């Protein structure tokens, strides 16, 4: 069985286990939908009071909101194994068993659990994104293909953050909560235009954690919005590729961590 087929079987088993209790699944998904869309209520209230911020109106910012939340929901669904890696695998010694299996540890941890709960965040993010695309006055429909491209780049970028968090567990044993600054904090930061931040933070969110590359720059091209930071137009089209570059770096960090793993001694 090839790796893709194996992952599909593990994902199917995970989904069937969660759907064994449809009432619980429905309540969790609905709760996730409601609690996450309340954050958009904060944005709505902000723009209702001030009209526009930094040359951005609510409709255009809603596109940023939709892109980053849809991307994060996919990473959250796929990366559960990395999120709990320190406590469930390193501290208990269970990672030793994964190393005995003739499959990639990355593949096995991706198959740990395919979470269905983030479907609430996915649906509300997709809803806000769809409304924003329909209401934006200057949408470039030729550039609409950037939407799935940006979502894929964002999903792999957030997945890279989770893999980096898991790799740090080889040193810290338990997962570090500070990584929530890059996951949930990144989702919050990605909802606002990049030009509102100070210069050092703009550099960090473009070239270190390429958050702006998967929401801000694609949104500029889709809405034909001028870029106050002066980046070339071609960069807006290719910027989501930085998410894949970031994932590649985190996979390299993961492989280095695995090569130096000496078990928990349990």
UniProtKB/TrEMBL annotation:
It comes from the Bacteria. It holds the Pfam family ABC2_membrane_6. InterPro entries: ABC-2_transporter-like (IPR010390). This is ABC transporter permease.
């Amino acid at each position: 069985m090839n790796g893709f087929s194996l992952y599909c079987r593990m994902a199917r088993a995970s989904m069937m286990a969660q759907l064994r209790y449809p009432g619980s699944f429905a309540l969790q998904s609905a709760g996730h939908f409601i609690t996450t869309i309340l954050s958009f209520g904060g944005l709505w209230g902000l723009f209702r009071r001030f009209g526009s911020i930094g040359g951005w109106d609510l409709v255009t910012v809603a596109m940023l909101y939709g892109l980053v939340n849809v991307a994060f929901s996919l990473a959250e669904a796929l990366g559960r194994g990395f999120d709990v890696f320190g406590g469930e695998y390193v501290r208990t010694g269970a990672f030793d068993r994964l190393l005995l299996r003739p499959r990639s540890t990355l593949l096995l941890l991706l198959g740990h659990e395919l979470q269905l709960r983030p479907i609430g965040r996915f649906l509300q993010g997709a809803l806000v994104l769809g409304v924003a695309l329909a209401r934006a006055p200057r949408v470039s429909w030729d550039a609409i293909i950037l939407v799935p491209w940006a979502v894929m780049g964002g999903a792999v970028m957030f997945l890279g953050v989770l893999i980096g968090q898991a790799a740090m567990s080889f040193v810290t044993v338990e997962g570090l909560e500070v990584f929530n600054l890059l996951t949930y904090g990144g989702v919050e930061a990605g909802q606002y235009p990049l030009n509102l931040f100070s210069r050092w933070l703009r550099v960090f969110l473009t070239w270190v954690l390429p958050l702006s590359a998967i929401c801000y720059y694609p949104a500029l091209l889709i809405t034909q919005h001028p870029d106050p930071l002066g980046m070339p137009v071609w960069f807006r089209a290719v910027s989501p590729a930085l998410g894949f570059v970031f994932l590649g770096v985190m996979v390299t960090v993961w492989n280095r961590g695995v090569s130096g793993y000496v078990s928990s001694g349990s």
